[in-house]
Amino acid sequence: MQTLLDRITVITGAGRGIGRALALGFAEQGARLALVARTSSELQAVEEEVRDMGTTAISIATDLSDPVAADGAIDRVLTEFGTIDILINDAAVGSSANPKPVAQFDDEFWSYTLALNLTAPYRLSKKVLPQMIAKKHGRILNISSLAGKTGLPFGAAYAASKHGLLGLTRSLAMEVIRDGITVNAICPGPVRSEASDKRLQFEATRTGLTVEELDRRATPIGRRLYAHEIVPLALLLAQESASAITGQAFNVDGGLAMY
Predict the structure, then answer these.
(1) 2 within some domain
(2) Pick from 17, 24, 125: which is nearest to 71 by CA?
(3) Residue numbers of the domain that contains 162
(4) Annotated catalytic sites, by residue?
(5) Per-residue pLDDT for 258 more than 90?
(6) Could you tell me if 123 and 217 lie in one domain?
(7) Residue 259 pLDDT > 80, yes or no?
(8) Whether residues 202 and 97 fall in one domain
(9) Which residues of 99-113 are buried (b: 16+ CB within 10 A; e: fewer)?
(10) Number of structural domains, the chain?
(11) Reported pTM
């Protein structure tokens, strides 16, 4: 049985990594998808994959760090589908693009990271909320990070943005708790990706350890996670049966932080 049949689902960062894995997982459960990311070619490839699975999908190529992009993306989805049931905020930039200590941090990269990782989810959530509140139903899921609960040396902007995303998650959950809307976050540990590979190489250069050794040390299970391992929890939180789960930040981290 498809548990999300015909649920209109917006997934940002859908062109690669966790976002792509979420798109495939939600398509398998019958959701109709709006895929949002910056790179059109990647979006088109994912759109073809989910269409081959038998679901409806549209692609919206836009840079969500632009303040007006969120409104434009949601307007396009509402024009196409008429409603939005689920919003998944996954689009983000990691620390590997410009790792530096705070004393030498790049101010422009700080602003860009906060704009994409925190302000964009705020703007997207703000835009979808009126119609969710009107119909007394909705799911908002924010993909944060374990770094949003701890910290990340040489990645203060990323950690700060993900801490902020948890604050947004909890505050919004409290505001809409009587409106049939749940708001939750998933906090992945280190996940295999192009950005994660770059960060591992940075750490290898900094520490003198090999990339292979750092990968083995990444989590207690002896490896980094795979993007598809984030999907089962996201599917659970999006379902009708999860209506009593809200304001939570769940770790999926291979046992790295047991709290």
Answers:
(1) no
(2) 125
(3) 8-189+227-252
(4) 158
(5) no
(6) no
(7) no
(8) no
(9) beeeeebeeebbebb
(10) 2
(11) 0.96
Task: Name the amino acid, one letter, at 230.
Answer: I
pLDDT in tens, 42-76: 999 999 999 999 999 999 999 999 999 999 999 99
Nearest C-alpha neighbor of 1 from the set 30, 26, 24:
30
Q: Which tokens is 140 given?
A: 């908002």
For residue 258, tell me if it sits in a domain.
Answer: no
Provide CB contacts within 8 A for 250, sequence distance 6+. Answer: 184, 185, 186, 187, 233, 237
How deeply is 72 buried, as exposed, middle or buried, from its count of CB atoms within 10 A (0-12, 13-18, 19+)? middle
Specify whether 110 is located in the same domain as 139.
yes
Let me know whether 182 and 57 are in one domain: yes
109 and 216 in a common domain: no
Query: Is residue 164 situated within a structural domain?
Result: yes
Q: Does 1 fall in a domain? A: no
Contact (CB, 8 A) for 234 and 22: yes
Give residues with Cβ within 8 angstroms of 94, minimum separation 6: 155, 158, 195, 196, 199
Per-residue pLDDT tens for 104-146? Answer: 999 999 999 999 999 999 999 999 999 999 999 999 999 999 9
